[in-house]
Predict the structure.
Amino acid sequence: MNNYHSSLVSVIIPTYNAEKFIERTLNSVISQTYLNIEVLVVDDGSQDRTAEVVKAIAQKDSRIILLQQENAGVAAARNLAIEKSRGEYIAPIDADDIWYPQNLEKQVQCMLQADSSVGVVYSWSVDIDEEDRLTGGFYNSNLQGKIRAALVYKYFIGNASSSLIRRACFEKVGGYNRHLKEQNAQGCEDWEIYLRIAKHYQFRVVPEFLVGYRQITSSMSCNDELMAKSHSLVMASVRQQSPEILPKTYRWSSSSFYVYLAAKNSRSGNVSRTLFWLYEALKLDTVMMLLRHHLYALTIISIFQLIVQAVTSTIASDSCPPLPLRAPEREMTTVNIIRRTNIHRFLPAQLYERWRLSKLVRPSEKTEFLYSQIPKVKAFSNIKSL
C-alpha cells in the first residue's frame, strides 16, 4: 500500500430503524476506491432488523464494526463511533445516504494537498429518492477557506454525509452536541459542529457530485418543528459567542432555513406548512425572497395541491379514481442536473447572495469564492446505480 493509502479513514454511520437503506449505504461505503477504511455502524436502539442486516454484511467485510447502544440520538451515536475509531480522518455518513465510488479518494487527496490549517473537506451532493434516482436537487457550493460567517448565513455543505474531517478537529472542539436532543430539538447537529470547527480551521471543497442525499418524507429531517427549534438554539449559541458576526446574518440565516423547511413540506404534500414557512421566510428577508425562484415555484405547487384537494373532496362516486395530491414529476437525468447547475449560478438570487456573502466576510478572513475559477459543470463523477 503506497503512502497515499496509508491514512486510515474512519467512516461513522449512526443508525435507527434503518433496515430499508442501510445495506445500500454500506455497499456504497465498502465500494469506495479508497480502501484503507474502517466502518463503525452505531445501532441507536433500533426496533427493526438494522443490526441483523449490518451483521450479515460485516461477515463478508471485516472492515465493518457494529456498535450498539440504547436510543440516545444521532449525536450520541456519532460520538460513540468517534470514540471507538482509530482513523486519522473521520467521515460521517447517514444510514440512508450513499457515496459514489470516488468520494473518499477525492476528499483524501484534497486533504493531503492542504496544510494542517484545513480541518474539513466537503464534496458536492445530489438529492436522490427511495430508489436512488435523481430528483433534481443539488448542493454545489464553491466556498472554502475561512468560512464561518458564510456558514452562519447558510448551511452550504448541505448534509451530514458530505465531509471528511480531521480527528484533530474533534480533539479541539469536542464531539457532536447531545444537548439538542435533550431539548427536543434535533436536526442541526452537523451544522452546529461545523460552526465550532470553523472557528479554528479552514474548509476545502471537492467540486464534484460525489454524494447521494436521500430525501424521504418519513425521515427525521422532515419534522419541521424539531428542525426549526434546533436551528434557533444553534444560532442563539453562536450569536452569544461571536459578537463579530453581523446581527442581520442570523435573520438571513433563518429565512434561508425556512425556505428549506418549506421545500421539505412541499415534497410531503403539506400545503399549510409550506405556505407558513414561505411567509416566515418572506418576513425576515423580503428582498432575497422576491429574487428566489423557490417562492414562486413552491407557491404555484401549493396552489395546485389546494385545487386538487378541493376537487378530490367533491368527488362522491367510487368509480372515479382519486386525483394525485402532487403534480407528477418527470424522471431526472444527469443531463438535467448538469443543465440546472450551469444555469443556477446565474440566477438573480445567486448573484445577489454572492455579493451579500462578500460583504459578510472581513478581508483578513480569506474566504475564497471560487465561482470564477471553477468551470461550468460538464459531467458527473461516477454517478451510477450502486
Q: What stands out?
A: The domain at 8-225 is CATH 3.90.550.10 (Spore Coat Polysaccharide Biosynthesis Protein SpsA; Chain A). The chain has two domains: 8-225, 243-315+323-367.
